[in-house]
Amino acid sequence: MIRHTTNPKVAVLGTGIMGAAMVRSMLRSGLYVHAWNRTREKADALVADGARTASTPAEAVTGADVVLTALNDGPRVLQAMKDALPGLAPGTVWAQTATVGDAATAELAAFADEHGLTFVDAPVLGTRQPAEAGELLVLAAGPESARTTLAPVFDAIGRRTTWVGDDGRSAAASRLKLVLNSWVAALTHATGEALALARGLDVDPRLFLDSVEGGPLDNGYLRAKAAAVLADDYAPNFTVTNALKDARLIVEAGRRSGVRLDLAEAGVARFERLEQRGQGDRDMAASYLAAFEPSVQDG
Known about the structure:
Blueprint: E1 9-13, H1 17-28, E2 32-36, H2 40-44, E3 52-53, H3 57-61, E4 66-69, H4 74-84, E5 93-96, H5 102-114, E6 118-121, E7 124-125, H6 128-132, E8 136-141, H7 144-157, E9 158-165, H8 172-200, H9 205-212, H10 220-230, H11 240-256, H12 262-276
Helix pairs in contact: 1-7, 4-5, 8-10, 8-11, 8-12, 11-12
């Protein structure tokens, strides 16, 4: 039985770049947040913002109306929820916000059913900056009965919530997220390659940007990633390592559905090249650097 409340107590499992930003957004909105992270120091850094922290997932979720998971992949999410079981009450609403793919989402939903939890498939679109500002796009699939409880949580972390279904087990939201992430990756690589070609041809990259300004080839994402490249600033908003994980999920989903994704596969190879060079912790805009041999890269 879901405990309906307009001011839910929230447990957040996972306080990396995205999880920590979402915790801060919830705290600014006046929500009570109990946070856990495998590396305790990352959770403890949120105490100054008003969060309570826990030593274990079970401690974090005890008494929570909503559990929000923001871990890196399906196996980590599942393990954290298994560890949380001693503190979980039947009917607790579980909002799973990480990008784990459609196959892993189905496995997590089955775990929720087995233990009487109300599962909501709720991946978020955005990177560090919109997460810090509470401007994420929340994609959600789950029962109507959970929406009232989740409304203040999603309102705190996002500029908009798009409900795409009433059954989290369908992975409808996660499937949409893969489609959106395929577009993000394509734009990232296209930006990097265009700027790399400009460099190779001794063309001022600003002439390229000026030429597309205000027209159908222009967009805000091109501007943001190009600005990072031109400033040689790869401080992570979304890391190469995380982008590679998502890119692999996209390719796997395409294969299972009989869709050939040549661009996505090439993108995987590009991110893998950066990982192999020890650049996995850079922002995904570093796709630009994958166009060059390490000896000729800037920085």
